[in-house]
Each structure stands twice: as structure tokens, then as C-alpha cells.
Amino acid sequence: MNEITLLIADDHPLFRQGVVDTLALEQDFRIVAQAADGSEAIEKIRTLKPNVAILDVNMPGLNGQQVTHQVTSEHLPTRVVLLTGYDDIEQAIHAVLAGAVGYCAKEIEPEVLARTVRAVYDGKYAVAGHIFTRRELDHWIDEQMDGARRSYSEPGSPFHPLSDREMEVLSCVVRGMSNKEIAGLLGISHQTVKNHVTSILRKFGVEDRTQAVVYALKRGWVKLQSDQVKNQE
Questions:
Q1: 172-187 mean pLDDT
Q2: Which CATH architecture has domain 164-231?
Q3: CATH topology of domain 4-143
Q4: Range with the largest mean pLDDT of 114-128, 191-205, 206-220
Q5: For the chain, which residues make up each domain, given as ranges?
Q6: Rounded to an integer, what distance in angstroms lies between the CA atom of residue 118 and that of residue 99?
């Protein structure tokens, strides 16, 4: 039986220790490190190169999705599973686009989390309560994208250019950041962020953030990899 090395990162010590204690009971798992924030997590991933990193989505410093961006852009071998308190399709898409191989709710049963770790170690993907092969995952993403694209008409739709600030907000949305995180990064109020997001959705003629991301990515207005992530190290 192959030993699977793990890093666990969460800014809540009690929850983090619970995950560590639970997974440490598995004979084929070895916890090689813990981290209390995203910056610590990426440094330990670079140094120790664990097989799997289990990261909280919302952490101070770099959040889980930003750490995932770093792991992907630096071609590190660690496979990332994100844990979230807000398990929805929109955030799952962001996680997959960022390079995560797993996206699970924090309410996940211990035995299911252990199976998830083994599945992603074996090269599979755990998203939306399913275990996918790469081909199955690509098909799932296509289905989600098609669903978003059907919500607006493409040919002949009027072009509404965004302001510089709206482009900054859009770039953050693509990176999976919450309104609170965007407000902190850009030094503006939470309400101002909400106003910008509402304006972006109205100008694009879409209903939610996922559709806005699909719309902007298809037109090349934003990129999944952002230099802003590196600048936060």
C-alpha cells in the first residue's frame, strides 16, 4: 500500500486538528505538515511537496483558491482539495478552473474525505459530490458552461465596456474571491464592491458571477492566472 503524504491548512485550529486526527487514523496516510493560513501553506507545499494538500477556501493571507493558483502556475506536484462551508456549483467551477482536483463541503463524512484523498491521489477528481476521471470532469465543466452561456444571447449583443475599477473587481471575481476579500484587496467598502458586481452583471446581461466569468473568459478580457496573486506573496 502506497503511503500518501498530506498537508492540512485551515485558520481554525479546532477544525484543522479534527481533520488531522481523523485522517491520521488511516494507515496509508501520513500528515507531514499543518498550516494556519494560505501563505504558510504554499511555503510548506513548495518545501515538502506533499501528495495531497487539503485547504480551507477562506483563509487569511492567501485564500485556498489563490494557493491553488500558485501550485498550478508553479507546476508543483501536490494535488489540491479545497474544503468549503459554501458548497455550490459556482465556487466549484472556480476551484476547478484554478486547478483544484477536489472541492468538498466541510460537512463531508470522515470516510468520504478519506476516499476522496485516495481518489485524487490516484489521478481522479472529486467535485460536486462525484468522483470523475479527467474526461468526465471536462464533460461536467462543459455542461456547466453551456448552462451559463444559454442565459444570454451572444451574436449581436451590445458591448458595454467596463470601467477600470470594474475590470479590477472582475479580475478578482475570476480568482474566486468573495466581496469581502475584494474590498480588502482594493481598499474599498463592501457595498462598493457589491455595486460594481451588480454593474458588471447588468452590462454583461447575465444573472450571476459564474456567467460573468464565462462571458469574460470567452472574450479574453481576463485571464485565470493573475500577476496579482504572485504580488501578494
A1: 91
A2: Orthogonal Bundle (1.10)
A3: Rossmann fold (3.40.50)
A4: 114-128
A5: 4-143, 164-231
A6: 18
Question: Grid coordinates standing for 188?
Answer: 474599498
Residue 87: partners with Cβ closer than 8 Å, 6 or more residues away: 103, 104, 105, 107
Burial 154-177 (b: 16+ CB within 10 A, else e): eeeeeeeebeeebbbbbbbbbbbb
Q: What is the rounded distance in angstroms from the CA atom of residue 154 to the CA atom of residue 152?
A: 6
Amino acid (one-letter) located at 39? S
Query: How open is the CA angle 232-81-79, to the nearest 5 degrees?
Result: 80
Q: Name the residue type at position 186.
A: L
104, β-bridge pairs = 83
> What is the per-residue pLDDT across 61-91, written as a single tens digit (0 to 9) for each?
888 988 998 998 899 999 999 998 876 776 7
Residues 34, 56 contacting (CB under 8 angstroms): no
Collect contacts of 121-130 with beta carbons under 8 A, ≥24 apart.
121/2, 121/4, 121/51, 121/52, 121/79, 125/96, 125/101, 126/81, 126/101, 126/102, 127/92, 127/95, 127/96, 127/102, 127/103, 128/89, 128/92, 128/103
